[in-house]
TrEMBL record:
It holds the Pfam family Glycos_transf_1. It comes from the Bacteria. It comes from Nocardiopsis terrae. It is an enzyme of class 2 (transferase). This is D-inositol-3-phosphate glycosyltransferase. It catalyses: 1D-myo-inositol 3-phosphate + UDP-N-acetyl-alpha-D-glucosamine = 1D-myo-inositol 2-acetamido-2-deoxy-alpha-D-glucopyranoside 3-phosphate + UDP + H(+). The lineage of its organism: Bacteria, Bacillati, Actinomycetota, Actinomycetes, Streptosporangiales. 1D-myo-inositol 3-phosphate binds at residues 23, 34-39, 92, 125, 149, 169. PANTHER family: SULFOQUINOVOSYL TRANSFERASE SQD2. The gene is mshA.
Length: 436
């Protein structure tokens, strides 16, 4: 670990944080199963906290008996695998039945250290929050919660055929909002959802945008990136990156591509729809859904399904793309959109949730109302056939992404942690008595 924390009173900064990511490990590849932007967030924040002399232990469920109890992710960052329920993949909704052994595992780990081993607990997602609250109360430390997604918000914007989030999750999130000392919202929109859907108090919420790795995701020559991912130099690559599930709406891109080819059949020889990601959620139960859709629309020949990629390889996909398409029904932030812009590629996204922050509409990308494939096709047509306009968006994209670096995120998280650690002010009567 290097260097002191640069801001404020060192005594008010936690020296060790218990981060809870119960349902998905920071060691998992983003884009597979339940791993996504939350995993990236936990890893990037933990690394940068450790660089500022704030140690982080990340508690996650052990999915295999072969996993070591503790893995060092980076100097000052340990991932602790806690046995809870049967090994292997479990549906997120089933994990609520295995919270007790997970909590006991957290308490055992803390008991092995000195008294006051952890100064603060930060939960990610509602399941982690439920476990984190119990541990925080047992240790007498503040509880900070990031929801990332919320049941009532998702249920208000379900994709066709998508199952609603269970009532148990809704109740659990209600309880978390009442119990957490501090709530972290990714965007102003999420902060409004916390107050509007869950009755959170505005003074309880810190709005802190996630960041992007500005060292890995950088602009570069598009022709070279196309060559590195095995595509001809004249390819028009329409890129989707993320977990393959109805909520993320990759089908909207495929339908839009079909409409685009109806408008201009000459595009077929150079059009590629790239779907980069793994099956997730209900997508596991519908593994052939996108391929069947592409065949039924007559565009199977232009759809290229790719597994999740490591970050450096993913940066080449962004650089190679004409446009990155993010048509999600719900997004708490939209990290893919920011990564794409950091690589100099404009974004076409749904005007939902955190995407209104992640994309600067009309400057670094385009936001579309709703999920009508025809509307997306019209914007894709313009991206391809108006190169000067696309180039203007592409030129502004890295500048917008640069305002969302991880250093800013960690600075503001440390401020939120200070607020959570600060002693509560005494009631007015006690303060007056103390002054006499």
């Amino acid at each position: 670990m290097s260097g002191p924390v640069p801001l404020g009173d060192q005594a008010s900064v936690p020296s060790r944080i218990a981060t809870v990511s119960l349902h998905t490990s920071p060691l998992d590849q983003p884009g597979t199963g339940d791993a996504g932007g939350l995993n990236v967030y936990v890893v990037e924040v933990a690394r940068r906290m450790a660089e500022r002399n704030v140690a982080v232990d990340v508690f996650t469920r052990a999915t295999s008996p072969e996993l070591p109890p503790v893995v060092e992710l980076a100097p000052g960052v340990n991932v602790r695998h806690v046995p809870a329920g049967p090994y292997g993949h479990l549906d997120k909704n089933a994990l609520a039945d295995h919270l007790c052994p997970f909590i006991f595992g957290m308490l055992r780990a803390e008991a092995q250290g000195d008294p006051g081993h952890y100064d603060l607990v930060h939960g990610h997602y509602w399941l982690s929050g439920r476990a984190g609250v119990v541990a925080a109360r047992r240790w007498g430390v503040p509880m900070v919660q990031s929801m990332h997604t919320m049941a009532r918000v998702k249920n208000a914007a379900l994709a066709a055929g998508d199952a609603p989030e269970p009532e148990a999750r809704v109740r659990g999130e209600d309880q978390l909002v009442r119990q957490a000392d501090r709530l972290i919202a990714n965007t102003d929109d999420e902060a409004r959802q916390l107050t509007g859907f869950y009755g959170a108090r505005s003074e309880q919420i810190s709005t802190i945008p996630p960041g992007v790795d500005l060292e890995t995701f950088t602009p570069g020559p598009r022709s070279e990136a196309l060559r590195r991912i095995g595509l001809p130099h004249d390819t028009e690559l329409l890129l989707f990156v993320g977990r393959v599930q109805r909520l993320k709406a990759p089908d909207v891109l495929i339908r839009a591509a079909a409409e685009l080819l109806e408008r201009d059949p000459s595009l077929r020889s150079r059009l590629v729809v790239g779907i980069v990601g793994g099956l997730s959620g209900e997508g596991r139960r519908e593994p052939g859904l996108l391929a069947d859709l592409a065949r039924s629309l007559g565009v199977a020949d232009v759809v290229r399904m790719e597994p999740p990629q490591n970050r450096r390889r993913l940066a080449d996909y962004y650089r190679a793309a004409t446009v990155t398409v993010v048509p999600s029904y719900s997004e708490s932030f939209g990290l893919v959109a920011v990564e794409s812009q950091a690589c100099g590629t404009p974004v076409l996204a749904a005007r939902v949730g955190g995407l209104t922050t992640a994309v600067s509409a009309g400057v670094s990308g385009v936001l579309v109302e709703g999920h009508d494939p025809g509307h997306y096709a019209a914007e894709l047509d313009r991206m391809i056939n108006e190169p000067a306009w696309r180039a203007k968006l592409a030129g502004a994209a890295p500048g917008h992404a640069a305002t969302l670096g991880w250093s800013r995120t960690v600075d503001e998280l440390l401020d939120a942690y200070r607020d959570a650690l600060a002693p509560a002010p005494a009631p007015c009567g006690l303060r007056m008595a103390a002054c006499r």
